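Researcher: Structure prediction, please.
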Amino acid sequence: MLEKTPEATANKTSNAIHPFDRATQAVNMDGRWRGTASEDYFAFVGPFGGTTAATMLRAIMAQPECTGDPLSVTVNLCAPVARGTFDLTARLMKATRSTQHWMIELSQGGEVAAFMTAVFAVRRPSWSHQPAQMPPAPPFDAIEPLPDSGISPWVRQYRFRFVEGTPGYGKGLREPLGSPYSRMWLSDALPRRIDFLSLLSMCDTFFARIFHVRGEIVPIGTVTMTTMFHADAADLAAEDTTVVLGAADARSFHKSFSDQTGELWSPGGRLLATTSQTVYFKA
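Model: Predicted structure follows.
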């Protein structure tokens, strides 16, 4: 049978809730789950997609029937989330001896703005092998962070220390075009221990690959993002880290949409999560 994993607790500093935990909290009000779009994590036209996804995952993890740890999550961002509150409706679609399959909708004004499917599982001892190798990188502290005068509020909630592919944006198309690949150390601006919620959000922190290629900022939006976790709660507790090494790339930009892939590694070389996205762009 599945076993209940202890719910992650919010990181606290000076008796205050961490901004990320405040932004992703979901409250049960008379049987209805509700969240609030955080101004601290706003992007161009709505909240940063990573915190929206993390809020939805947190709401699933808070359900009494939820057991195990997140294994795979797909979030579809249908429309920008507006300022103010939103409703969350979670449903257990199917449970087996090993897994649970969940669906959750985020709605405002009776319209669905985002929905997520999530698979939870209990990882039991087994044969293990990690063919993937962590990309080389100098130590976290050896690299200066990107200036925090971010292009939108959510960027200021993180610290980006680029190893390769440091962004540089001008006012026109770069010639020749740049590489879509980048590698960076990543952490919350206010240190917070890495857990499933922060991993999911961090999978959306990679700047749009088109920015790196064109050397300019153009209108973009994540349409769908799938994240697979390669560690359970015990593994994350053992890593006990507030930083990850991220690597991101893209393969095609065509007729207003592009792909985007990413990896998040612990400083010790464990692959914690992989992600793939479809991104809309206007250029």
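Model: The radius of gyration is 18 Å.
Researcher: Thanks, that helps.
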